């Protein structure tokens, strides 16, 4: 890895940490379903990608460990504190967005 590669990795890692902080502390009100509708990914996707990256480096990580890294707390606790039941409108928008992507 060159110095440029190292610096790029450091910048990317800092941006990822900032995204997590934003989702954890500044916008916990944004529901995963809304993220899926608008962006096609959510916190659960991020935790899956995080776990896949760990696996690619030979680091064993459970789904729960990855989710805790992304949510900043155990997933069940996050759900109890922040996750609302999806509305019929959100579910319809999610299905429409999913169909549009495929």
From TrEMBL:
Query: What sequence ranges are listed for the domain SMc04008-like?
Result: 30-95
One of the Pfam families matching this protein, by short name: DUF1244
Q: Supply the InterPro entries for this chain.
A: SMc04008-like_domain, SMc04008-like_sf
Name by which UniProt lists this protein: DUF1244 domain-containing protein
């Amino acid at each position: 890895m060159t110095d440029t590669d190292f610096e790029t990795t450091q910048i990317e890692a800092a941006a990822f940490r900032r995204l997590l902080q934003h989702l954890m502390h500044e916008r916990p009100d944004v529901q995963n379903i809304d993220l899926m509708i608008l962006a096609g990914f959510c916190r659960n996707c991020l935790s899956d990608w995080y776990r896949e990256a760990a696996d690619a480096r030979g680091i064993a990580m459970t789904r729960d460990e990855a989710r805790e890294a992304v949510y900043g707390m155990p997933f069940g606790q996050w759900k109890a504190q922040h996750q609302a039941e999806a509305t019929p409108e959100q579910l319809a928008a999610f299905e429409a967005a999913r169909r549009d992507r495929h």
